Amino acid sequence: MTEQEKFAWASLAASVLVWAFFAMRMTDAGSVVEVAPRHMIFTYVMLVVMFAASHAIIATVLVAGRRGRIASDERDRAIEARAERIEGYVVVSLVNLLVIQALAEAALPGHMLPRVDLGSVPTLVFVLISTLFAGHVAKQLATLWQYRT
To answer: Cα 18 from chain centroid?
Structure first.
């Protein structure tokens, strides 16, 4: 397994754990709860710190294991570029779904689409941050897929 694959697996695991912490702080029984702005700010700051720290630790451990920089060649850079493009597609698609949801809610009050209360700040924050995490997870999965094919 290449160093890039090891990083992708570790990043995927760390990201899922950080998102689980975020979901634990923002939801109850699968639905987003109304929380105070201070709670959301603290949760967001902790989320950023945990994500940055976990990825810094992963990179440090991988570099320490090799006693130097992780080498990358043209293939590695091409895989990373494709994975980042896929990440962008996922994020743009999910943001477009949120826009469609908001427009449907405003224009068609009795529509049959699943309802997401985008008027609630905690729900909006949860959905937007989850969108970013979904993009990151898609990037790591795309990276792993491309190294296996």
So the answer is: 9
